[in-house]
Amino acid sequence: MIEDTHLIELKGVSRTFGTTQALKDINLYIRKREFVTLLGPSGCGKTTMLRIIGGFEYADEGQVLFEGKDIANVPPYKRRINTVFQKYALFTHLNVYDNIAFGLTLKKMPKDEIARRVGRMLRLVKMEGYEKRGVDSLSGGQQQRIAIARALVNEPEVLLLDEPLGALDLKLRREMQLELKSMQQQLGITFIYVTHDQEEALTMSDTVVVMNHGCIQQIGDPKRIYDEPKNAFVADFIGESNIISGVMIRDELCEMFGQEFPCVDEGFAPNEPVDIVVRPEDVMVVGEDVGQLTGEVASVIFKGVHYEMMIRTEAFAWKVHSTTMQPVGTRVGLTIVPFNIHIMHKAGGQ
Amino acid sequence: MKRSWFAYPYSLWMVIFTIAPMIFVVYFALTDTSGALSLSNMAAVGQETYLKILWRSLYLALICTVICLLLGYPAAYFLASKDFNKNQTLFVLILLPMWMNFLLRTYAMMSLMENQGIINTLLKAMGLEPVRMIGTEGAVLVGMVYNFLPFMVLPVHTSLKKMDQRVIEAAEDLGANPAQVFRRVTLPLSMPGVISGVTMVFMPAVTTFAISRLLGSGNFMMFGDLIDKQFLELNNWHFGSSLSLIMMALIIISISLLNKADPKGEGSAI
Question: Cβ of B218: how many Cβ atoms within 10 Å?
Answer without folding.
Answer: 10
